[in-house]
Write a structure and sequence with these properties.
Layout (H helix, E strand, L loop, with lengths): L7 E3 L10 H5 L5 H13 L4 E3 L8 H10 L8 E6 L11 H12 L4 E6 L5 H4 L3 H6 L3 E7 L3 H12 L5 E7 L6 H4 L2 H7 L3 E5 L22 H6 L3 H18 L3 H11 L3 E5 L3 H10 L6 H14 L13
Parallel strand pairs: 1-2, 1-8, 2-3, 3-4, 4-5, 5-6, 6-7, 7-8
């Protein structure tokens, strides 16, 4: 795997369409708005981009690809995903879905290719091996897998001459089940990079939203997070206090926490200042006491942020 930056950048909210930025995030972002963000990130060395075929049904990949074709291939790290639930659109062929992704992204190989969720571990996991062997996929990852599913997938692949090199799960101050279940420890023991998505809970831990400033009602985020904003205000208040001690924002505290836990956070970027936030967060080391206080306050909030496509990692 190429040398990774401390933070990966997510393109889930880029583009529109089914499971895309407009439906999930209430955004409507295209190439014109997003090109300055891509350029700012690349200039700062944040060169890993995470997307998926299912994000806007190719819309996110299309936009990212329009930017990727303008840079040297070796200068960018591309992470995209096979989603079992839409496999029929590609004749139930992982290869066909991967080929379509590469075409949209203007690349000949994928740095990290993920199975998006464990819909059928026995059926889909073996299909990764030929993609690795023919050089189309450089590293294999699994997302939203619990520990048993992760171990099973790794065993299947090891029997086919490759291995899991990356795990991508929902991991934030409010959802630490991948740590409690032993997934983080398993990753450390097996030289697997753990990528944390939804570190800022789609903005709920950014400091931007509270009971006086709820999410716009037109998005999935509003349905999921607005009802629990009251319980989260003590936590975001503590994040603000710790952030002020380090000269960083609430969002940067959430990101720095994930880095300090030994993970690579994936931060969704829709504004240039999100890139600047990420750069600053990557340089902050929180104390053990600060981490402990944050986690205790998160436990006190006692909310579930597990979304409809997920399960608790037990």
């Amino acid at each position: 795997m190429k040398k990774l930056p401390k933070i990966a950048l997510g393109a889930w909210s880029w583009g529109t369409g089914m499971a895309g930025g407009d439906q999930v995030f209430g955004n409507n972002l295209g190439e014109q708005e997003l090109k300055p963000i891509f350029d700012a990130a690349m200039s700062q060395g944040l060169n890993m981009w995470d997307t998926a075929t299912v994000y806007g049904m190719g819309s996110s990949e299309d936009i990212l690809g329009s930017f990727v074709k303008g840079v040297k291939r070796e200068d960018v790290i591309i992470s995209t995903k096979f989603t079992p639930q839409i496999a029929e659109m590609y004749d139930n062929s992982m290869k066909k879905m991967a080929d379509a992704s590469m075409k949209r992204l203007y690349i000949d190989d994928i740095d990290i290719y993920w199975i998006h969720n464990p819909a059928d571990v026995e059926r889909w996991t073996p299909q990764l091996a030929p993609l690795v062997k023919n050089g189309k996929v450089k590293a294999v990852g699994v997302s939203n897998h619990n520990l048993a599913e992760l171990k099973r997938a790794n065993k299947i692949l090891s029997g086919l001459g490759c291995k899991i090199e990356a795990v991508q799960n929902h991991f934030s101050l409010l959802n630490r089940s991948s740590e409690a279940s032993g997934i983080l420890d398993y990753c450390k023991e097996n030289d697997i990079t753990f990528f944390a998505y939804m570190v800022l809970e789609q903005g709920a831990l950014s400091g931007k939203y509270d009971t006086r400033h709820p999410f716009p009602e037109v998005s999935d985020r509003a349905k999921s997070y607005n009802p629990i904003l009251p319980q989260m205000e003590e936590l975001t208040g503590l994040m603000k206090e710790i952030g002020e001690a380090h000269g960083i924002s609430v969002a940067q505290v959430g990101t720095a926490w994930a880095i300090n836990k030994g993970t690579v956070p994936i931060i969704g970027v829709t504004k240039v200042n999100h890139v600047e936030d990420a750069v600053k967060a990557a340089g902050v080391t929180l104390t053990n006491d600060e981490i402990s206080r944050l986690e205790s306050m998160a436990d006190k909030a006692n909310v579930s942020t597990i979304r409809e496509w997920e399960k608790k990692m037990e």
